[in-house]
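Worked problem 6 (solution included).
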Amino acid sequence: MHEAAPLIAPRAQFAPAKINLALHVTGRRPDGYHLIESLAVFTRFGDRITIEPADRDEFNVSGRYAADVPGDESNLILKARDRLRALCGQARAAPVAIGLEKNLPVAAGIGGGSSDCAAVLRGLADLWGVDPGDAALVRIGSALGADLPMCLAAKPLVARGTGDELSFVADFPALGLVLVNPGVGVATAAVFSALERRDNASLPPLPRHFDFHSVRNWLDETRNDLEDAAQTIEPSIGAAKAALVKAGAGFARMSGSGATCFGLFETGNVAKRAAAAIRSRHPDWFVAATRSMPSEPGMS
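Solution. The predicted structure is:
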């Protein structure tokens, strides 16, 4: 473990939504873990985390979906805190007050809990003045959930294996997106259990050049292999997807294991107008217009 300069000021961390633009289930290991291939991006809309020194450990939740967040030790955020503290040593990991502004719906297929956990791991490492290294953070994260390695990276990527084999995608653009959830959560384990087939074809090769049209055309050749299974559990997923199409999405699909769907729009302004139209028809739904975060310049 390498030393880093301790930080005293409160740390603010952003926990973006993770969107699986395509998700293919390609196999199942003997231990029951499913093998996937997924193109994932992260959005400018998400949860927010604050971390600051305290006399004793505290955890406070605010935001639209605060009531859906468990406050006990089953919470991934608290598990991440405790595992990083065990790695660093109690003497170097002083008590902290963690605040979560929960803007993303829970059990929604957009990696909210995993992204929160990743943000806490990064923020605590800063505040405690430790640098355990990316590999150690990934090991902690992988033990907490399959999405954690992706959420720690938080940039356009292709994930393979159980979600732990990551390849970053260069030159991927920002995409105009609308996220829609019909107000329901779907358990990931139940969706995988409902799959009729687990040995589907791999992702096709990525486009040589990325823009709105090439991404949309590539998505037409891909799938989310969890979508049909999720809809058998929660039929309102179909209504969310239909609402995006009605609002003019160039492409619409369910993300992850659901129930959130995304619509692809050519510009951010068009996405905002579409979100407003959907929100007016479905005021009780979660609806957010946002943009995905592009690849970092010069990334290979």
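Discussion: Residues 112-128 form the longest helix (17 residues).
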